[in-house]
Amino acid sequence: MDNSIHVPDGYSVSKRLQSELVQLMMSSTPGISAFPEDDSNLLKWFGTIEGPEDTPYENLKFKISLDFPNNYPYKPPTIKFISPMWHPNIDMSGNICLDILKEKWSAIYNIQTILLSLQSLLGEPNNKSPLNAQAAQLWDTDMKEYKRLLMQRYEEIDD
């Protein structure tokens, strides 16, 4: 007999997030990491994303926050860049425009796929729907100026 029907919803969310944490720790995917802020609240996480090679973000590391809703994975987490960011699809407050975090969200996505998507977004912005129009324009026309403005905003983070 399956008793999981009688378990409060928060339990299954915690279980899912715990298994995703283990999965993330077991897979040594380079350049991405995420952990709960503290053991008492699995719904609030911090993560880091390293810029992909051969992009303006190479050798740069950024801190993000991940807030999971009570009905995760049926609704996407809210993810923001805490580190100052210069990117066509990220505004000055750290909000991200990425379809899999909005209308294209699916419960099959997990923290690892989200982090990998964000990492690849750094090197492959969607300039058709920019949150930062100046960054989008410079990405297409003047990479040297783009990199200068990126480095002007960039702040090193502690591991």
From TrEMBL:
A Gene Ontology biological process noted in the UniProt record is: ubiquitin-dependent protein catabolic process
Write out the pathway annotation from the protein's UniProt entry: Protein modification
**Enzyme Commission number, as recorded:** 2.3.2.23
| Record PANTHER family | UBIQUITIN-CONJUGATING ENZYME E2
Q: Which family does it belong to?
A: Belongs to the ubiquitin-conjugating enzyme family.
Q: Which domain of life is it from?
A: Eukaryota
What name goes with this protein?
A: E2 ubiquitin-conjugating enzyme
Q: Which GO terms describe its molecular function?
A: ATP binding; ubiquitin conjugating enzyme activity
Its keywords, alphabetically, are: ATP-binding, Nucleotide-binding, Transferase, Ubl conjugation pathway
Q: One Pfam family for this entry, by name?
A: UQ_con
Which species?
Ascoidea rubescens DSM 1968
Task: Give start and end of each UBC core domain.
Answer: 12-159
UniProt xrefs under PROSITE patterns: UBC_1 (PS00183), UBC_2 (PS50127)
Does the keyword section mention Kinase? no
Q: What SMART domains is this protein classified in? A: UBCc
Gene3D superfamilies, per the entry: Ubiquitin Conjugating Enzyme
Catalytic residues (positions): C97
